[in-house]
Prior knowledge:
It is a single chain. The protein is α/β, with parallel strands linked by helices. The protein is 41% helix and 15% strand. It has two domains: 2-151, Rossmann fold; 177-460, Alpha-Beta Horseshoe (pyruvate-formate lyase- activating enzyme). A seven-stranded mixed sheet has the order 3-1-4-5-6-7-8, with helices on both faces. The chain has a six-stranded parallel sheet with strand order 10-13-14-15-16-17. 46% of the residues are buried. The structure holds cobalamin and iron/sulfur cluster.
Amino acid sequence: MRVLMVHPSALMYSEIFLRLEPLGLERVAGAVRQAGHEVRIMDLQVFGHEDLARELRRFDPEAVGFGLNYLANVPEVIDLSRRVKELCPSSLVFVGGHSVSFIAEHVLAQADGSIDAVVRGEGEVAAPLLLAAWRDGAPEEAPGVVTLHGHGPAPRMLERIDEVPPARDLTRRRGRYFIGVLDPAASIELTRGCPWDCHFCSAWTFYGRSYRKASPEAAAAEMASIREQGVFIVDDVAFIRPEHGDAIAAELERRKVRKEYYLETRADVLLRNREVFERWRRLGLNYMFLGMEALDQEGLELFRKRVSPNQNFEALEVARRIGLTVAINLIVSPQWDAAQFERVRAWATSVPEIVNLTVITPYPGTEIWHTDAGDLTTLDYRLFDIQHAVTPTRLPLHEFYAELVRTQSVLNRKHLGVRAVSKTFRIIGRNLLRGQTNFPRMLWKFNQVYNAERQYGEHQRPVRYELPPPDLHAVDRGNRRDLYIHGRSG
Ligand code: B12
Ligand code: SF4
């Protein structure tokens, strides 16, 4: 079959800092191609809707698969699926990815027949089986598949995550992918899943707290095949198993692969496995994202982060000593008042690290969707992007955004201070010489995007598509497996 795989547009608030290749979609595309289909990818982070319409006319696909990792993209994907049905009425339209896995039936109903099937869970096994089942006239018999007429058996996981390499050769305009100063940057996955269970996060519920590793040989071979010099390691928590990180490092050393890396990890993992991070530093690890989430014990306990503030601060020290540039995430509560924002500004300006803020958001797949979503102020998908407040704010909403934006711009200015600016201009100069303009463009875009009036105004837009209302109940040992996509109980 001719199959077109589509990634929706980037969300404005993340596009400032990064735009990454659609790795999940590339993996599914790789599996579909291995099954003998002719596959193309169109990434709307770097192409427009009119490009998609042109591609639909030219390629005339028999199946179109949309990636829906993000709730905020649901309205766009439903509208696009209607457009596909107008232009290619006989094609199969299917959707898969992280967020849609938790609300499959609801999205199918909202799309009103323009989405034929939702694939829940990992797509590598399910998508080729769906295409075969569609040809046989019984799509709902494929594992993980849900249609308006029923659903198939439980979703199946890949046994080895390195079984199907991502089809990177199918993404066009790869020079548009970047993360901060790593411009251009590719992405890679060395492990999949997370064994922790933070109450605001859905990474663990999606994979049922499982954790799989790519073989060190396959991981190094994939790394060596990447053309870009910058690489973002997408793992939720890098180097949980130090022997695995070491084995990949050994393979990279043997192959003399040297790149510049950006990864994400936890404070306790960095403290426990410091040597492996040092070894990767020598291989080109420069940037690290650390989900600190809260500065105090109370906040960390509330999020069930299972680290202490001391571990967080110690990890920062270790990262500084290793010579890593660290970006920290802190979670903002809508209950913060002006004094709390001021405390965070004071702390954030006293440390050299980049500080990023996200707003606590109950969304389907998280534990707090069931326990703390009783007072949602909106069900507009577009506001569920962890940059908007979807529960009541202590400050009037426009003042909350004013504080949030003031804090974000203080943090941004910090990195455009005198010393930082000279370093930044050196990097911009180096990138411009190579024709890469993503990073300077994002610097100038900051004020346009982070704007309190605008964020407040986004709550006033007419709403066409809403999330399902939350199913409120206590979550405990007895029923938490019901939240899982893979490995659900019953
Ligand atoms: C890397 C990553 C990113 C990258 C995205 C790169 C890209 N262009 O796709 C960046 C850094 C840009 C990013 C940004 C954001 N992210 Co993010 N991100 C992740 C992360 C850590 C890994 C995703 C990944 O690449 N995994 C590896 C690949 C192989 O897996 P995958 O993409 O899930 O794909 C598999 C399946 O989902 C499925 N699948 C995927 N697509 C398709 C398509 C079809 C047709 C089918 C059949 C199957 C299928 O099959 C794939 C293979 O098994 C996840 C956490 C997680 N563990 O999933 C969070 C996660 C997806 N992100 C999240 C969030 C909140 C965000 C932001 C909104 C944060 C912010 N405010 O900036 C932004 C918004 C992004 C946007 N739309 O612009 C949340 C999702 C919340 C939600 N329900 O909407 C997650 C789950 C993190 C979390 N802890 O809760 N993110
Ligand atoms: S926040 Fe990080 S450590 Fe916690 S469950 Fe999610 S991925 Fe795992």
